[in-house]
Amino acid sequence: MSANDDLKALIRTIPDFPKPGIQFRDITTLLLDPKGFAQTIERMAAATRGTVDLVAGIEARGFLFAAALALPLKAGVLLIRKDGKLPGATIAEDYALEYGQDRIAIHEDALVPGARVLLVDDLIATGGTARAAVRLIRKAGGVVEQAQFLVDLPDLGGADALRKEDIAVDALLSFPGH
């Protein structure tokens, strides 16, 4: 039994969604459990290294974790959104999808150069969006050296790809497959 089996038990697996062969890890069942969600945030906060100025959440489920985690860390929340969703001047970063491209953005004035940023999302799979978020934060002058996720799908290599970019990666849970 691992330290986070209590949280793992709160995540529902939906087979063959969104297509045959995929084991979808549905975190909404954990979010519905107040004790489980609170323990998730406490454990993520405990895993945070050093002082953090901003917790960056990737749209959309990452917003939930970033906002909740920012409170015990006494940090602000940086929203990383799909391009075109933020008002005002933005900077953006493109990244590859399985079939095409996408783009994420932050406000130009969202962080001051040298701000220490913790990147957070619910799940890391291939790491394409997370790696683009790291590039975007660094382009804006932020210092991002760590990322946290509720779930890692290590077979898809995203956490390892982030580590190659000098990011310390933590995930409370790991599931095999995709």
Fold and architecture overview:
- With 178 residues, the protein is an alpha/beta fold.
- The chain has a single domain (50-174), classed as Rossmann fold.
- The chain is 30% helix and 35% strand.
- The protein has six helices and nine strands, in the order H-E-E-H-H-E-H-E-E-E-E-H-E-H-E.
- It has helices at residues 5-8, 28-31, 34-47, 61-73, 128-139, 158-163, and strands spanning 12-15, 23-26, 54-58, 76-82, 90-97, 100-107, 116-124, 143-152, 168-174.
- The strands form two sheets. Strands 5-6-4-3-7-8-9 form a seven-stranded mixed sheet, sandwiched between helices.
- Strand 3 (54-58), helix 4 and strand 4 (76-82) form a beta-alpha-beta unit.
- The longest helix is centred in the first third of the chain and has 14 residues, at 34-47.
- The mean pLDDT is 95.
SSE string, helices as H and strands as E: HEEHHEHEEEEHEHE
Q: What would you call the quaternary organization?
A: single chain
> What is the alpha-carbon Rg in Å?
16 Å
- Put simply, the count of helices is 6
Count of strand segments: 9
- What's the level 1 CATH class? Alpha Beta
Mean pLDDT: 95
State the secondary-structure class. alpha/beta
What would the CATH topology be? Rossmann fold
Count of the separate structural domains: 1
Measure the end-to-end span.
22 Å
- Molecular shape: globular
Strand order of the largest sheet: 5-6-4-3-7-8-9
Beta strand %: 25-35%
